[in-house]
Amino acid sequence: MNPEGYLVLSAILFAIGIAGFLLRRNAIIAFMSIELMLNATNLAFVGFANYHGNLDGLIAAFFVMVVAAAEVVVGLAIIVAVYRARRSASVDDANLMKF
Amino acid sequence: MMPLIPLVTASEVAFWVCAPIAVLCALGLLLARKPVHSAVSMAGVMVSLAVLYAAQDAPFLFVIQIVVYTGAILMLFLFVVMLIGVDSMDSIVETIKGHRIASALVAFGLGALLIAAVGQFAVNGAPAGLAAANAEYGGNIESIAALLFGKYVFLFEASSALLITAAVGAMLLAHGERLKKKATQVETAAERVRAYVEEGEHPGPLPNSGVFARHNAISIPALLPDGTIAEKSVSKTLTMRGVVVDVNELRAPTNTAYAAIEARDAAIEGDDE
Question: Per the database entry, which stretches of residues form a coiled coil (chain B) (predicted)?
């Protein structure tokens, strides 16, 4: 089928991810929104790969997944470290560098 | 002859089934109050995206999406949610004025812009499909392997460095560093005596739960000889949760027993007279 449907779906998911990242105060949910945005771009990659008929888009999506896995590991470790020091996972409470 | 019903392919059916599920689950992620509900919605998004990959002739990514994203990354998220507190609710107080409206506007505007851009550069013609590209080396996985270990081999090597760095970084960050020095036994003893001198705190161990009460479960407070509760006999956490047994409930069986004994005594004394 046409890739337009996939691209529109990808745009919608990306916008929801942006909204989640901007609106939610819980660091874990903000982080999950970032994952949602990465997934949305992956969908666009696969849609374009299918449209153009070559596999480079799939490779790009594969590497996005690799980077996302590394990012999740480090990001969640940071969230746990911040929680251990400050007893809170809210992004509002981590304000040591606030001017 | 043109068929009356337009031909619907399997991939279109998959799209129209999975796309609404993905959007609904994404909205669930955005709107759920509890982090666990958000994580479960996220799992829904990921599984429906995996089905969409399968519908677009990308079986390798379909499996990777389920194994790596739904299986590994999301479970890691759930672990951290468990670690940090399942029932921690998001506060709904706006800390910055107009923040929510502005964020919603930004997200909505960006979505509208992206969708408009897709509509603007409308792609013409049917998609080429991955069947030919997949068949080149005898299958999807073989063709991806040929690309990965041929054209993109240096990127592949670099990603291994990235993964090792991430693993080391996670170990360093998650390794609990002691924020305060651990108190030695001598220091604890000195602290106890100091508390006794200055505040009159009993230096010995805390009272057991359930002393003089009829059970010794940890939620049953000890009763003092005068019938009141020894507050230190029950953990503070249990007191905060409100599962501590009420003192009147504890005293009731004793009181009825005493009442019965006294009644019998009175009856016996009455017989004597």
Answer: none
- A3-23 vs A27-52: helix crossing angle, rounded to 10: 170
Amino acid at B234: V
pLDDT in the model for residue B202: 83
- Answer whether A41 touches B (CB < 8 Å): no
Is B223 strand, coil or helix? Answer: strand
CA nearest neighbour of B176 among A72, A89, A69, A82: A82
Contact pairs from chain A to chain B, CB under 8 Å: 235
Minimal CA separation from B142 to chain A, in Å: 11
User: Which band of pLDDT confidence, cut at 50, 70 and 90, is reported for residue B228?
Assistant: confident
Degrees, nearest 5: CA angle B255-B256-B257: 90
CA-based diameter of chain A, in Å?
A: 52
Question: Do B243 and B249 touch, CB atoms closer than 8 A?
Answer: no
Least-confidence region, from B2-6, B106-110, B168-172: B2-6
Nearest to B80 by CA among A69, A71, A72: A72
Give pLDDT tens digits along chain A (99 positions): 677 888 899 999 999 999 999 988 888 999 999 999 999 999 999 988 888 888 899 999 999 999 999 999 999 998 888 888 877 778 777 777 777
The total number of residues written for chain A in this structure: 99
Whether residue A16 lies within 8 A of chain B, CB to CB, comes out as yes
CA end-to-end span of chain A: 52
Q: What is the radius of gyration, based on Cα positions, of chain B?
A: 34
Residues of B within 8 A of A73 (CB-CB) are: 76, 166-167, 169-170
3-state SS, residue A94: coil
Measure Cα distances from B54 to A41, B12, B44, B66, B192 in Å. Answer: 16, 12, 15, 11, 66
Query: Is residue A70 within 8 Å of B166, Cβ to Cβ?
Result: yes
Distance from C-alpha of B168 to C-alpha of A86, rounded to nearest angstrom: 23
Q: Which residue does chain B place closest to A92, by CA atoms?
A: B95
